[in-house]
Structures are given as C-alpha cells and as structure tokens.
Write the structure tokens for this entry.
Amino acid sequence: MPVRGPARLPPESVNRRGIPVFSGRYYELDNVVPGNYSTAMLNGHTTILNLLEGLDFFAGFDKDEMNQLLEAGEWSRATNEEYIISEGDLDLYMYVLVQGKVEVILHDKILATLETGDTFGEFGLMGGRRTAHVLAKGDCLLVGFNADRLNLLPLPLQIKFLKKILFTLFARLQKVNRRTWWDLPTQWR
C-alpha cells in the first residue's frame, strides 16, 4: 500500500534536526548544521543550496532566507509509483520537486506531469482537502513545507514565500486559460 503523505502517518523517530521521520522517507543530509545549508551535503557531493539555486521557485531568496526556509522545510523521498498526496486527504503541506517527476491524477486521468523545479500541493497550506492524487514516476526528492512551520518564519519572508506561490499559481492558471481558449470552437473565441 502506498504511503499517503507525511502528515497522516505517526512519526517513528526524530532525525538529528528534530524533524519527525516517517517510514524512513525523510532524506538524510550529510554534515547538516542547522541554519547553514551552504555547506550541508546531499549524497556527499552536492551542497543543498547549490542544488536549489537552479530551481525557479527559490530564485530571489538570499542565503539567509534560504537557510530559514530550509530550516522550516522537510526533506523526503518518494519511490516509483508511491503516492505523495492522495485525493481527499487533509494536511497542511506543499512540496517543491527538487529532483524527479510526478503525475497529478484525478479520476484516473492524468491532469499534469510535473518535473524538477515544479511545485504542487499549494492549497494544502490553506487547510483544504486534497483535490487530486500526486504519484511519483521514478525516484523523487522533495522538500515539503508545512503551514504551521512557515507561520513561524519572519513576516517579510512569509510574504515573499507566499508571493512565489501566487506567481506559480497565476502562471498555472494562465496556462490552463490559454489551453481552454484554443480548445473553444472558433466562433466562440
């Protein structure tokens, strides 16, 4: 049975940063000093900040802001065909897909395929029920953000983070609108 998301499972232990570990899914990071992710290593060779610098979602955050966000975030892995989010679940997480590919599925129909750098689950931050499944297609590395932990960040950083989410959602909406527009019969355009 696939794992349905970290918010629904009881923690089995706590990692060295004090984050609950669910079924071993949280990614172990090497040499982590809380608040200093510029030297923390992922798999022993890539710094976490270097990995994230190339992702659009994190563009515009300075080093200190990135450290604060990563302190609030929770790293996890998903394996092929593992559910990261299940429709109808209630949790307060959103995710940035750091590496890998996922499918967004509603009523057995693939709505979207997301790849490295994409975000999903943003409405979870508002406490709403999940409206679709998100299924890993291959091994994935994710950083999840919980609404309660984000609320502990300094207010200017919260606003900057939420603006990033808004821009992401606006871009997604524009893409859907363009697709819908071109799907309309010519006489209705």
